[in-house]
Here is the input.
Amino acid sequence: MVASRSQLTSWQALKEQAQGLKNTHLKNLFAADPSRFDTLSLAIPGVLFDYSKQLVSEQVRDTLVELAEQCDLPKWRDKMFAGDKINFTEQRAVLHTALRNPGTQAIDVDGVNVVEQVHKELAKMAAFVDKVRSGQWRGYSNKAIRDVVSIGVGGSNLGPQMATEALASYADDTLQVHYVSNVDGVQIAQVLKQLNPETTLFVVSSKTFTTSETMTNATTAVRWLKEAATNDDAVAKHFVAVSTNLQKTAAFGIADENVFTMWDWVGGRFSMWSAIGLPIALYLGFEAFTELLAGAFEIDEHFCQAPLAANIPVLMGLLSVWNTSFLDHRAQAILPYDQALHMLPAYLQQGEMESNGKAVNFAGEPVPYTTVPLIWGMTGINGQHAFYQYLHQGTTIVPADFIASVQPQADIDGHHDVLMSNFFAQSEAMMNGVDAEQVRADLQQKGVDEQQIEALVAHKIHQGNRPTTSIILDKVDARGLGRLIALYEHKIFVQGIILEICSFDQWGVELGKGLAKNIESELRVQRVGEHDSSTQGLMAYYLTNRQ
Ligand code: F6P
Here is the structure.
């Protein structure tokens, strides 16, 4: 029988090492070893990864790597890349890596070469993007398309929208892209009111084509179009879909040639490299989309080839397990010092929490350790003026990823150095903190009287010892973004294997979906069914007052 993770010798050793390090301050580790940065950082083309401000020693790093070996991480990684059905609760392969593999070597899933399928679909996307961007694709009144509305939610929205926002600096004004994900009518109403139906193209993205929020928004969009267009073929000229479900797309009225395929081996939250990324390609051109894929492929190669101890996504996953399962830090902040990455925290919330926010191991037994942390964050500068107080002096320690780039997207005199000064300063402050002696010396130097100093000291102490990782990209361009996202994708995979969690299903979102369906029918007929008294009371209040 395979030993549970917590019985592995490396796991036990890490538990002891964690006890030892809990009484160690990061600043002392730096003081003791002037070459700490050199030892605990890595550079690959386009990415510098510094984990020297994590509360680890070389010994911990090596034991974490041993844990990865004892968990057969390389074997699992190779299974994923080869198309084995590692998503075993759904009997599916996990092959988002095939979406960006430029090679021709076949990968077989159920006797079908997926590489061929991927390249065929990419060619279809490229031709379509060219047709729309060049103005050959015409709307019902023979006008070229000016606006694209992407309708989708979760994995069918977050990736494309995050990438669109991240790369907006590189867009020309051929097309504007808008996103509708929320079924709250206010979102679609606000988007549609700016648009002309004659020149608007809708991309309805849903892997299943059954997601009620997306279908509701898509139906509203059809109604809006038909209010303006009387032509029978208006829907065909203004709607395309991205889905695995050809029956449903046809039933919705979208011709097969206007459907871009994805496959069950692409998980929603890993799907921006597939046709789900169509809005990105429409916005930026297909070349930029190819660059995005190329950046991700570079990281796939690194993940497959670099030794575990020098493998950035492996270390990212292991450090997360270290912080959460051993040091008991239950939250993790994502702090981009790059406005272009403002949606990254939301994107990674789905990536990490929908993948690994689970409590049973491969065999379905409860795990005896904390799994993944709560992921949250926002751009660093805005966060500094909002929640960093908590990060510096709160009672809960929140490890953080700081992400920045060497080259700004907009080089406006002086701005980037101000931004980067904050990036460097914040992680330094979180690591070092300020002790009572330093606070006193500072206040004395400012001429504050002794009585006041004593009243203030405790309030001004920063404990420091807050673990952070710093990632510096060359630039947030399509290739750089591809690299960054693929790093996090593989981090999530590593976490899943180490924690023995099936990362590629999401049963936890099904319960609420099912209940909402039933409740929706009750609301339609204005009858509150069998529920607990709170739910009944809330529904009754809503029904009584909604007019
Ligand atoms: O929220 C749950 C979820 O199933 C996600 O995993 C998925 O990305 C999203 O819904 C959208 O699903 P679909 O692409 O099938 O509409």
Q: What stands out?
A: Residues 96-290 form a domain with the Rossmann fold fold (CATH 3.40.50.10490). The chain has 23 helices and 13 strands. The longest strand covers residues 400-407.
